[in-house]
Amino acid sequence: MQEAGLTVLVVEDEPIIRFALVDALEEKGYCVLEASNVLEAVGIIGKVEHIAAVVTDIDMPGGLTGLDLVEILDKSQHQIAVVVTSGGHGPDGLTLPADARFFSKPYHFDDILFALRSTIAAKAKLMKKRRGFRLVRA
């Protein structure tokens, strides 16, 4: 699967981490949207039709966490692949969808890129089976 044209939403409140991840994704050809908290992310998801994946941190300002965002996506946006990151939480005890990926900070950008490729491909295949879903490039 080629990354060119696929849209990824990065939800990260730490600007340096967000900017670095956005740069890494754009270098690989992704169209990248940014949000610094969950409310911004939900607003973007409500306006942009073809988001292939969301990369979100867990701890966020504003009252909602990245886990809240994952729950929202799991209930209403089944076609969006999810990658979760955290510097303060480990994967133990987290309730994530079976197809979501988790990375502790600091992470390697190559690991995130690989996870995106594999989760987007798996999600597209699953959605196609479920209801004729077709991955649309922006």
CATH topology: Rossmann fold
Strands of the widest sheet, in order across it, are 2-1-3-4-5
By DSSP, the count of extended strands is 5
Uncertain stretches of 5 or more adjacent residues = none
**Percentage of residues in strands:** 15-25%
CATH architectural group: 3-Layer(aba) Sandwich
How many domains comprise the coordinates? 1
Order of helices and strands: EHEHEHEEH
- CA radius of gyration is 14 Å
What is the tally of helical segments? 4
Class of secondary structure makeup: alpha/beta
- The helical percent reads 40-55%
Overall mean pLDDT score?
89
Shape: globular
CATH class term? Alpha Beta
For the record, what is the CATH homologous superfamily label?
Answer: Response regulator
Report the end-to-end length measured between terminal Cα atoms: 15 Å
Main beta-sheet annotation: 5 strands, parallel
Keywords, separated by commas or semicolons:
138 residues, alpha/beta, Rossmann fold
